[in-house]
Amino acid sequence: MHGSFNVPNVLTSVRLVLAPAFLWLYLEGDEDGALIAFAVAAATDALDGLAARLLRQQTRLGAFLDAAADKLLVACALIALSVKGQVPWWLTGVVVGRDVLLAAGSLFLSLHHAPVPVRPTRVGKYATALVFLIVVVVLAANYHDTPPARSSPWVVALGGLAVALVVGSAVQYASSFSSSVRLGRRAHDAAGR
Questions:
Q1: d(Cα 114, Cα 122) in Å, to the nearest integer?
Q2: Are 119 and 66 in contact (CB under 8 A)?
Q3: 52-76, pLDDT tens digit by residue?
Q4: How far is CA 132 from CA 77, 155, 181, in A?
Q5: What angle do CA 40, 41, 42 make, to 5 degrees?
Q6: What stretches of the chain adopt beta strand conformation (E)?
Q7: CATH of 7-192, one of 3.40.1350, 1.20.120, 3.40.30, 1.10.287
Q8: Which region, left, alpha or beta, applies to residue 43 given φ > 0 means left and ψ of -120 to 50 means alpha?
Q9: Closest Cα to residue 128, out of 91, 153, 165?
Q10: N vs C: which end of the chain shows fewer Cβ within 10 Å?
Q11: H-helix segments, 84-147
Q12: Closest Cα partner for 6 from 68, 57, 42?
């Protein structure tokens, strides 16, 4: 397979479909189905990157889709869990708010013909991994009928750490976007000469 239709991008597309499926299943009360959807989605997150490297099918589109799928899965999971009162809304607000700002920043860069940074920062990757861990802790607690009083302190502690990483990654992205704006202006000025 060549171009955008390759194994890594198909795996990423599966995650894009499973993210809203998880949200719907969880809100409908089908926790087993939601757990399966999340587990498969998380597996595709590991497999698409591995496949891209092994098959040498790394593309700019693939990197963009992978980041978008991660953010959609995280947003859907946090919203579902917050609606059910199992994850604090402040965590969901900070994580989803940062991602909305990133999307707006990317659109701004595109409209101004500046390069859009696609690769996630290392701190951003840690933040995403930690949020995934929070979701797994909550889903596992639900699956084992663990009382919220026992899992809630873990969720709050991990959530506080996740927020610190999300804010740190937002600062890194802001710096990267600012550099892209400067590069875009230089390229525009050079083209106008």
A1: 22
A2: no
A3: 788 787 887 778 888 889 899 999 9
A4: 9, 11, 32
A5: 90
A6: none
A7: 1.20.120
A8: alpha
A9: 165
A10: C
A11: 89-111, 122-143
A12: 57
Comparing CA positions, the residue from 136, 113, 130, 119 lying closest to residue 190 is 113
* Contact assessment for residue 39 and residue 49, using Cβ atoms and an 8 Å cutoff: no
Domain limits of the chain? 7-192
CA distances from 168 to 21, 33, 99, 121, 122 (A): 30, 34, 13, 10, 10
Residue count of the chain, please give it: 193
CB atoms within 10 A of CB 105: 20
